[in-house]
Structures are given as structure tokens and as C-alpha cells.
Amino acid sequence: MSALEPFRAELRALLGKGVLLRRDRAMRALFVCDAGRLADAGEARRRILAAGYVICDEGALWRIDLSPERRAQWIGSLAPGPLPADGALRSLCRSILSRQAPEPAEQPWSLIRAALLYLDAGERERLIAELSAQVAILKRTHAPLPAAAAYIIEATEVQYADLPSCAQ
After folding, report:
1. What whole-number distance in Å separates Cα of residue 79 and Cα of residue 8?
2. Residues near 141 by Cβ (< 8 Å), separated by ≥ 6?
3. Distances from the Cα of 19 to the Cαs of 30, 56, 164, in angstroms?
4. Phi, psi of 32 (to 5 degrees)
5. Which residue, of 22, 80, 84, 150, has the greatest Cβ tally within 10 A?
6. Is 152 buried (19+), middle (13-18) or exposed (0-12) by CB count in 10 A?
7. With left for phi above 0 and alpha for psi between -120 and 50, is residue 29 left, alpha or beta?
8. CA-to-CA dists, residue 42 to 29, 72, 150, angstroms
């Protein structure tokens, strides 16, 4: 299960049936939905905001992301796990975790969101390339690193390791 799945399930429950909800491929938010076209769009908006999300309204399309408060709470609930078996992912996690983890509110959300979206899409190579480059820049500028991204990668890799292989 993707780390993005609990948020997807929660939003589907809040939006009801018949609403398109998909991962934001532009990576400006976690999800894009067409709830703005609903007759009760105002009520749907209220439910989403009350659940700790923010909405960027683009007419009938809404970009939905975690609010800063919910984001910090969620990041704070994450914990380190075993390093991935995959060498490139293990190296990325080690690089991200090479310093003490910053406070949840200080971690760069755009990179954590990118990790969620890339992992959900199964785009591991893009995840490695993008995060490696961005983490290198953050290290050079002594900016906070996205420790939560490493925790998400570790948790996802543990789930993949638990799946039976095709050879069995």
C-alpha cells in the first residue's frame, strides 16, 4: 500500500462517489479532483478543510494538499525504518538522514510530497534522480533535509520486501 493511500481513502470518503480524484501529476499538490462541479461544492469544501487539507481552486478542478498543521502532525508521526535493500534507495536514504532530522514544520514539504507521489506512481528512478539532486542542493546550502521522505521510502520498501517474488 502506498503512503498516499490513507489520504486518498479519506478524501474519497469526504467527497463521495462520482468525483474524479487522482494524484497530481504536476506535483503542486497531492491530489487533483473535479469536486468544484458538484452542486454541493461548498459543503464538500468545508468537509475537506475541516479534515486538515487546503484547496487551490481552479474552477471545477481543485488541487488538494495537506494543511501546514496537518502536514507537521503527519510528519511528526513518521519514524525511521530499516534501510532499503536497493542500493540506490539505500544511498538516498542515508544521504537524507546524514544529519539530525529537523522539526516537522521545517522539513521541505515539496520534496516529501514528491516522494509520496513518485512512490505512489511506482517511479523509483525519477524519485532517486529528483531527490538526490535536491538533497545535494539542500546540503550545500545547509537547509533542512526532508527526513520524512526517507522514512516514507523505508516504509514503502519494507512493504515491497514482504511481497512474494515471482520465482517462488
Report:
1. 21
2. none
3. 16, 16, 34
4. -125, 135
5. 150
6. buried
7. beta
8. 20, 26, 37
- 109-119: per-residue pLDDT in tens? 999 999 999 99
Query: Could you identify the residue written with the cell 494524484?
Result: 23
What are 10's three cell numbers? 479519506
pLDDT tens-digit series, residues 26-59: 999 999 999 999 999 999 999 999 999 999 999 8
- What lies within 8 Å, CB to CB, of 1 at 6+ separation is 159
Cβ(145)–Cβ(107) below 8 Å: yes
CA distances for 157 relative to 23, 61, 89, 139, 150, angstroms: 20, 33, 9, 24, 10
Distance CA 14, CA 57 (A): 17
Please choose, from the candidates 104, 107, 110, 85, the residue with its C-alpha nearest in 3D space to the C-alpha of residue 96: 107
- Scored b (16 or more CB within 10 A) or e, 1-24 reads ebbbeebbeebeebbeeebebebb
Record the cell numbers describing residue 126, joined without a space: 525519477
